[in-house]
From TrEMBL:
Protein name: Lipid droplet-associated protein
Superkingdom of origin organism: Bacteria
InterPro entries: LipDrop-assoc
Length: 183
């Protein structure tokens, strides 16, 4: 324990701290610009957060005052298209006059499966191996494939090739058949 008075001990501590800081000054000066930029970026990000929080509070306060637009004028949905468009799909390789009196002629009510039109003259039906297959997305099919046998996957592949013939589906089904045959 020191017998020196408290203010003298504090003064000695200040002198030692000043000497240590003087020794570290070159390193501190080198890092000063980085520290300053970091602090400025922190402050600007915090200011942006505060402004965003205020905007959110303002939006929630004004939501009750202003009426909500049913459908924005800039939004276009498939349901808004004229009725004549969905069934019309030109086939440059076929003459429309040659198909007039057959069941191969495209009609406005021709069903589309996942955005693809089935091949002409093929009756759309659900394969027995996987009911609802024709309306499944690729992700849904991927989830169901593990529970199917080789014969069932082969049936789906034949169905796909004779109907929509979508390349990602054909590839996935072919790969699954190869994997099952390899096991």
């Amino acid at each position: 324990m020191s017998s020196l008075p408290f203010p003298v001990r504090v003064a000695a501590g200040l002198v030692v701290t000043a000497v240590e800081e003087a020794r570290d000054l070159p390193r501190t000066v080198a890092g000063l610009p980085i520290t300053a930029v970091s602090r400025v970026l922190q402050l600007s990000m915090r200011a942006q957060q505060v402004v965003t929080e205020l905007a959110i509070k303002g939006d929630s306060a004004l939501d009750g005052v202003r009426p909500v637009e049913e459908a924005p004028s800039w939004a276009r949905f498939d349901d808004d298209l004229p009725e004549a468009l969905p069934g019309t799909w030109p086939r440059p390789d076929l003459d429309d006059t040659s198909l007039e009196h057959t069941d191969l002629a495209p009609t406005p009510t021709t069903p589309r499966v996942n955005g693809h039109a089935p091949k002409l003259g093929v009756v759309a039906q659900t394969p027995d191996a996987l009911p609802g297959y024709e309306s499944m997305s690729i992700a849904q099919l991927r989830g169901k494939l593990r529970s199917l046998s080789v014969d069932e996957v082969a049936e789906l592949l034949a169905f796909e090739e004779s109907h929509a013939n979508r390349p990602p589906f054909v590839t996935m089904l072919s790969n699954r058949i190869a994997t099952l045959n390899a096991q």
